[in-house]
């Protein structure tokens, strides 16, 4: 059964997500000396990123020990308004003390397949450089942030695409017909190795998909967010009342 927390509004959802991010970062840095996270794209996380960058909160994370990856990226330049990197750089990365070498951007301005291959290599090199054999074998993100579209997609794992059942490669490029656009995405093979996955879902437009993803039959080709089942068992859904209206 999914672990779901329902909040009255997007503001309190973002605050709870910030609390979890901070707690996860502090524990990871205390226990392993670093935190590795993947940011979600889209607009829902913006409030969370702004909170994490705010004066009252940002010093609760020792950002120099945080490694930033992304769950997915649009195939546009990093300065493009649609870029997940550009949006998170504006709201968060440029405002906290991350080390530049610890910001692992998806090179989505390159040819899609090349971008996917390069990012997969970046991830393989990162995890193979970890200090202990256990950490190298686990190859686990401490926290992966994910959104969900009104069609039940997550990251850029869209309904009916091969990405849903990609259990070998860690990163893949896919052409999304409904968007008429290429995307780069982490795959279930890597996402499901995470210690913790946090979904952030807000707004009435998500309520039909959310109801089915959480409580409907298991149809991941139709509702790809269902494919996210971390081996750790730690998939938490933070949703607002508008998105949870059908529960
Ligand atoms: C993206 C995201 C995507 C997003 C959902 C929800 O690049 O767009 O990775 O999976 O999380 O589409 O988007 P909103 O938060 O904008 O509703």
SSE blueprint and pairings:
Blueprint: E1 3-7, H1 10-32, E2 35-39, H2 46-52, E3 66-70, E4 72-74, H3 84-91, H4 112-128, H5 133-138, E5 143-146, E6 171-176, E7 181-186, H6 188-191, E8 197-201, H7 207-215, E9 235-240
Parallel strand pairs: 1-9, 2-3, 2-5, 5-8, 8-9
Antiparallel strand pairs: 4-7, 6-7
Helix pairs in contact: 1-2
6-phosphogluconic acid binds next to loops.
What are the defining features of this structure?
single chain, 247 residues, alpha/beta, six-stranded parallel beta sheet, three-stranded antiparallel beta sheet, 7 helices, 9 strands, 30% helix, globular, binds 6-phosphogluconic acid
Mean pLDDT: 97
Q: If strands are numbered along the chain, what order do they take across the biggest sheet?
A: 1-9-8-5-2-3
State the order of secondary-structure elements, H for helix, E for strand.
EHEHEEHHHEEEHEHE
By secondary-structure content and strand pairing, the structural class works out as alpha/beta
The gyration radius over C-alpha positions equals 17 Å
Question: Terminal Cα separation, in Å?
Answer: 14 Å
User: What are the bound molecules?
Assistant: 6-phosphogluconic acid
Q: Main sheet, how many strands, which sense, barrel?
A: 6 strands, parallel
Give the strand tally: 9
Q: Could you give a quick summary of the protein structure above?
A:
By secondary structure, the protein is of the alpha/beta class.
């Amino acid at each position: 059964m999914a672990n779901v927390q329902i909040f009255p509004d997007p503001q309190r959802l973002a605050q709870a997500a910030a609390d979890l991010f901070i707690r996860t970062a502090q524990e990871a840095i205390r226990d392993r000396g670093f935190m590795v996270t993947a940011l979600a794209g889209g607009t829902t996380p913006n409030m969370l990123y702004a909170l994490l960058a705010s004066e009252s909160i940002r010093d609760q994370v020792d950002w120099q020990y945080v490694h930033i990856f992304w769950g997915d990226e649009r195939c546009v330049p990093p300065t493009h308004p649609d870029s997940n990197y550009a949006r998170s750089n504006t709201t968060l990365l440029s405002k906290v003390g991350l080390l530049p070498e610890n910001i692992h951007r998806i090179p989505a301005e390159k040819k899609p397949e090349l971008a996917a291959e390069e990012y997969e290599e970046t991830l393989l090199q990162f995890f193979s450089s970890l200090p202990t054999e256990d950490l190298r074998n686990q190859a686990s993100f401490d926290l992966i942030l994910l959104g969900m579209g009104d069609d039940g997609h997550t990251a850029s794992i869209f309904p009916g695409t091969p990405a849903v059942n990609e259990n070998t490669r860690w990163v893949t490029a896919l052409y999304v017909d409904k968007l008429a656009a290429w995307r780069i995405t982490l795959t279930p093979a890597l996402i499901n190795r995470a210690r913790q996955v946090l979904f952030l879902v807000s707004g009435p437009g998500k309520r039909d998909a959310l109801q089915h993803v959480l409580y409907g039959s298991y149809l991941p080709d139709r509702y790809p967010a269902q494919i996210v089942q971390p081996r750790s068992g730690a998939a938490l859904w933070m949703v607002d009342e508008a998105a949870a209206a059908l529960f």
